[in-house]
Amino acid sequence: MNKLVTIGVYGFNEESFFTALQRASVDTLCDIRRRRGVRGSEYAFANRARLEARLAALGIRYVHRLDLAPSKELRQGQYSVDAAEGVSKRQRVVLSPAFVEGYRHECLDAFDSQRFAADLGEDAHVVALLCVETAPAACHRLLAAERLAQDLGLEVEHLLPSIR
Question: Which residues pair with 146 in a beta bridge?
């Protein structure tokens, strides 16, 4: 693995999402969502079956990494913080300290970055971590990317939607 990128779903449309992956030369997409679906017809392209089919047509390998997905309980805790702050999941710009601590304990304490890279194999050169939130700081993909970058000495690029 030479490079790591992250991408969310919100803010992209189907064309801009897949164009962003291609421009970044992504060859492997790691879906780190627990539930591999997104509400809203505008995001139907990111639902598992459609996503896998389109990626395959583009020659991008799809891998689901449930070990990097936060538990339902951890997500519910973040939703409670969001509600108390009066923001929706799509408006969130940063994760709560409790979520960050919980995710690191739940998913990253026992995570082996070397094993992750080995599991992806030698054909994985530019790997994308996928979740849904627009802002990397509002999503666990940033925490996973920081860990991989630190452990593997990788460059990380965050693919963001253009302002529409």
Answer: none
As a dihedral over the C-alpha atoms of residue 51, residue 37, residue 141, residue 63, rounded to 10 degrees, the angle is -40
Q: Chain centroid to CA 112: how far?
A: 18
Residue 94 tokens, joined: 């940063």
Buried/exposed 114-144: b ≥16 CB within 10 Å, e otherwise: eebbeebeeebebbbbbbbbbbbebbbbbbb
Spatial distance between the Cα atoms of 72 and 74, rounded to a whole number of angstroms: 6
Average pLDDT of adjacent 10-residue blocks, the chain of 164 residues = 96 97 98 91 95 98 97 96 91 95 98 98 97 95 98 97 72
Per domain, the residue ranges of the chain are 3-159
SS3 state at 159: strand
Contact between 62 and 52 under an 8 Å Cβ cutoff? The reply is yes
Element at 118 (helix H, strand E): helix 113-120
Question: Does the domain at residues 3-159 carry the CATH identifier 3.40.1010?
Answer: yes
Concatenate the DSSP letters of all residues of 37-95 into one string: --SSGGGGGGSHHHHHHHHHHHT-EEEE-GGGSPPHHHHHHHHHHHHHHT--TTT--S-
